[in-house]
Amino acid sequence: LSPGISLLLVHDLLLSKSGIAAPASHPLRVAVTRHKARLSAELTKIRIKRGFTSIDKLRTHLTRIAGDHPAEEPLENTARSSNAKCWPHPRWVRMNSVKICHTNQFQTLNPDYEIVESLSEILIASPGEKILHMDKHVPDLVALPPDTDVSKLHGYGDGFFIVQDKASCFPAYLLDPRPEDGPCLDACAAPGNKTTHLVAILQGHRLKASKPQVWACERDKVRAETLKKMVHLAGCDDMVSVKPGQDFLQLDPQKPPWNIVGSLLLDPSCSGSGMIDRGEIIAVTLPSGRSDNNSGATSRKRKRKTVSDIENKSYGEEKTDISEQGSSPLGDKDAQLSSRLRALSAFQLRLLLHSFRFPHAQKISYSTCSIHAEENEHVVIAALNSEEAKEYGWRLLRRDEQIEGMKSWHRRGDIHACRDVLPGGHSLNSQDIAEACIRCEAGMEEGTQGFFVAAFNRALEDGRYGLAILNGEEKASSRVTELESGAVDLMVLEEWEGFSESE
């Protein structure tokens, strides 16, 4: 009976409504249930100490901490930690305007739901309560209580509603493609939520096209199949041309049809550190199991996953794991993360600079589901400071130029992260860049995952004003130089697709 199995069995014995899923005579079940009285007594002590009057309230609180379900507030002696996730995560559903003609069709199909004015009412909803909140920033976006089973909504199976985190809607909405811009290119498209959002926005601008106006590239052919299914379910087949197996970096911007692309959405592989329940690995210290010197037994042991193993799995395969004591060398963790972020940021910059080379493009949105400045503000500043930005006239879309919902979003870029890589004495520039960038933080009252997005535009008549926000020709610090030169091992990323979308 290993420590890990013991932990799971005790959890099921004390907290699971169905108890331990094993026959009454099973040896593992017997080994734990013989101590039920003592374990229950200890749990009662902990529950009372934490201020919960029942097991149900404790269980609901724990699931709220996990970000899966709403919960009642704990008593006063249960203080919130500033570093912990304090708010549950709502279920965000984007009404697919490609198939839905008016915003109140959600209630037409699901009449049991009542509209509430504030998101906070969604976050503290009672289990099973049927209420919805119309988002104030992104059109056609609805927040539902965290315990909502979206698959049971009328219209979900028909593609009327698309499960998409609020932050994940920001890139397409900030890009705001228009029919007059020309075709739109989604550079890293799977699984397709942002792709179909682009179509919805274009149709909102009364685009009626006889041929596809959104090109969706996906290098991974397996993920491209998921992309095709999403596009079909959303009713976007006529508007989207999926390019399975197409590596964005292999496109020649000067050749047809890519030379007429007017806007690009770039949401590349990233660390995924902002994803709900993915940014943190639960650290549980368990007693070591008995050592076994039998070589035969040793040969049958399975390799234990490390934190690094978990982080480097691609989206759709990742499993949350418990990092047991000794399973990952803590002294190497920071160095490994730093090395990984250097590789990722260099790769992201490479993609962003490639997007600058499309001759007809006038708009680009760049986003990650990462909380690390190395993948966010640092990449943006390196891109602004690049030769490509100078040559083609790219600049950062200022906050006052952004579409209304994004302009009013209050969480902006990290000014300290901007100062880290800008030349000294230019705090005004840092402020401008930080204000132009948009951030989201997981576990806060806005109900989003951790996210970052910024947009670029260009003035075709002036190819040199792309650095206006940087005050001319001054170069950034060595961090930017390192990113520009690509002085990291890009081969690290050749086979890894990373995290790119919130389902």
User: What Rg do the Cα atoms give?
Assistant: 25 Å
For the secondary structure, the number of strands is: 13
Main sheet? 8 strands, mixed
- The 3D shape can be described as globular
- Termini separation comes to 37 Å
Judged by helices, strands and strand pairing, the structural class is alpha/beta
Q: What's the mean pLDDT score? A: 79
Helical percentage = 25-40%
Model regions low in confidence, pLDDT < 50 over at least 5 residues: 67-85, 278-284, 289-331, 462-477, 486-503
> What percent of residues are in strands?
5-15%
Describe this structure in words.
- The chain is of the alpha/beta class and 503 residues long.
- The protein is built from 18 helices and 13 strands.
- The strands form two sheets. Strands 6, 7, 8, 9, 10, 11, 12 and 13 form an eight-stranded mixed beta sheet that branches.
- The longest helix has 27 residues, at 330-356.
- The model is unreliable at 67-85, 278-284, 289-331, 462-477 and 486-503 (pLDDT under 50).
